[in-house]
Amino acid sequence: MFDTPKKQAMKHLLAAAFLLPALHAAAAEPAGFRSVTVPAAHHGRGMTGALFYPSAGGGEAVSFGENSVFHGTRVLGRARMAEGPFPVVLASHGLGGHIGALGWLTAGLAGAGALVISVNHPNSTREDFDLQEGLKHWTRVQDLRAALDWLAARPELAAHADFSRIYAVGFSAGGWTALSLGGARADLEGYGARCETAPPSPWQCADLTRRGADLTAYSAEEWNAGRKDDRVRAVAAIDPALTWGLGPAHVRDLVDRVLLIGLGAAETRLPATDFSETGSGFAALVPGAQIETMTPAAHFSALPPCKPEGSAILAAENDDPVCDDPPGTDRAALHQRIVARIAALLGL
User: Fold this and answer.
1) CA distance 83 to 41
2) Which of the 8 DSSP states describes residue 216?
3) CA 263/CA 265 separation, integer angstroms
4) Can you tell me the mean pLDDT for 233-262?
C-alpha cells in the first residue's frame, strides 16, 4: 500500500482536515497557514491545497488535520507572512491520503524557514479516490508543477519565495512523486514482474489487485517516462513507493542531493516501500544519497499522532490498526526527527 489502507480509516483524517480550534499544546512559533485552490488543467478541475510559511504574527490558532482519531498540527490561519525570501518546498501525500496527513511535516518545514505548498492530488485522496486513475503517478508530478507555477504567478506570494532553492518532499506514493520531480524514472515492466512474484501479504500488489487495479491497463511509455523538473534542486522521500524493478538507468538523471528515510527496522518495514538491500535495492542505485533508518517506527508512524481513543475507534469500525506502532514508538518525536533531518538537507 501507499498510504492509509482503507477509505474508512481515512474518513477520520479528513473529517476536519482544514481548520478546527486548536485543542492541544503547540510549538512556540507555529507556521502561518492559508488554504488555497490551484488550477489543474491536466485534470480539468482545481486542486485544494495548503500554503505554509514563516509567520510574522497575527492570525488565528487552529489545528490542521485534527479529528476524533488523530491530533492535528497547530498553525496560525491567515497569519502575516514574514519577509523572506524563503526556499520553496513542494510536498506530496500518499495514495489515499490527504494534505492533513502531512501537516506535521509541511508546517514543521515552514517553521524551519521554508515556504511550503501541498495539494490534494486528484483521484488520489480519501474523498476523491479512483485507484486506477490515482496510480497514474505522473499526474502527481504535474500537480506539483502546477502548484509551483501558481505560486510563481502570484506576485504577493512570489515576493516571499526564493525560486533558486526549490525542493520536493513526500511520503509513500508522495515520496515517489518527489523522486520523480528530482529525475527518477519508474518501470512498469519491472514493477509488474515484482508483483508476479511477491507474496500475497503484506504486499502492495495484492492489495491493489483486491481493490480492482490493473497494471496491464497502463501505457509503459507514460509510466516509464522521465518527469524531471530542472527547478528542483533536492529531494527527500519518506518510505517511497514504486522503487521496485529499477536499475542504474532509472536514476541517471536524479538530482545529487537526495535523502531517503526508511521507517522501521527490517522486521517492521512495509515491503512495498522498503528501499534497502533486502527490499527493492533502490538505495544501492543512488550511492550518493543520504540514507537514514528511523526506529522504532513503521510505515504508518508517518501519520499524525493518534488520540488515546483512536485505536478503539478504528477497531470498532473493523478498520486497519494504523494507530498501532512498534513498542517504544513516539510519533511526535519521530516527526520532529524527520523534520529536523529534512531541514538539514535543505539548509533551512
Assistant:
1) 31
2) G
3) 7
4) 97
Radius of gyration of the chain (CA): 19
d(CA 71, CA 61) in angstroms, rounded, equals 15
Report the side by side order of strands in the sheet with 20-21. Answer: 20-21, 60-64, 73-77, 32-40, 45-53, 115-119, 86-92, 161-171, 232-238, 257-263, 290-294
Q: Which of 340, 348, 299, 292 is nearest to 320 (CA)?
A: 299
List of residues 6+ apart from 186 with CB closer than 8 A = 137, 176, 180, 223, 224, 242, 246, 250
Q: Closest Cα partner for 326 from 267, 257, 240?
A: 267
The rounded distance, in Å, linking the Cα atoms of 113 and 82 is: 10
pLDDT tens column, 55-87: 999 999 999 999 888 999 999 999 999 998 999
Place of cell 490542521: 64
- 273-287 burial, b at 16+ Cβ within 10 Å, e below that, comes to bbbbeebbbbbebbe
Q: Is the pTM of this model over 0.85?
A: yes
282 phi/psi in degrees, rounded to 5 = -60, -40
- The x, y and z cell numbers of residue 117, run together, are 505548498
Q: Which pLDDT does position 83 carry in this prediction?
A: 92
170 with 177: CB under 8 angstroms?
A: yes
pLDDT at 46 over 50: yes
Q: Is the pLDDT of residue 180 over 60?
A: yes
Closest CA to 341 of 292, 274, 295: 292
With bands split at pLDDT 50, 70 and 90, how would you rate the model's confidence at 203?
A: low
